[in-house]
């Protein structure tokens, strides 16, 4: 996928009745890049991710994901890993045993599990029970499930939500490791500050509409909506 746009979608739109929750959003994700999808609660982040995953049917919009038509998610989903709602883990099983369970469920090779544990920074803790993990570790295990099939595109919906600052640093380091292997990452947050040091580009959304899209260093700090995002928690 070198040099290719892993996601190239224009005019992505979702309406529920007369209500437009995603309004003509363009998404262009270069191979190996990390893109932040930033916006307050209800901005449409989850809906955009769900449309890329074929979980929600777009009202309008066209384009490709991993070279396949957006309208045919079955053609590309085997190369996509996602954390949208955390999988339900078994509290009394170890992190490793939980990954084994989800690998079997997804038909993935169990031999990939050590690499996944390494990527999500849980090596050394994989034998501990899930219930003993911090929230950040639980989130990283969830991301581990998304990585089991060795996906080319990784979609993470608010993995830093509720995680303390140290846990957030761990998640950011993990996202960098994921992308360093050439994977493309789309990650959402309602706070720009949580992701600004990890993303190559950001897409700022508000009420379903795109407010800014581009590299972070070009993001004008005077823009009202950006100030809002920096200040909101
Ligand atoms: P959050 O951080 O709260 O998850 P978000 O940016 O991910 O916010 P979405 O979950 O995509 O936002 O929701 C965008 C808007 O679409 C919200 O106002 C939500 O109420 C609305 N919405 C989502 N799903 C449906 C649905 N099935 N029917 C009607 N409205 C919906």
TrEMBL record:
The protein's name in its UniProt record: ABC-2 type transport system ATP-binding protein
Family: Belongs to the ABC transporter superfamily.
Native species: Flexivirga oryzae
Domain ABC transporter: 7-232
Part of the whole protein covered: 22 to 254 of 330
Record key words, sorted: ATP-binding, Nucleotide-binding, Transport
Molecular function via GO: ATP binding; ATP hydrolysis activity
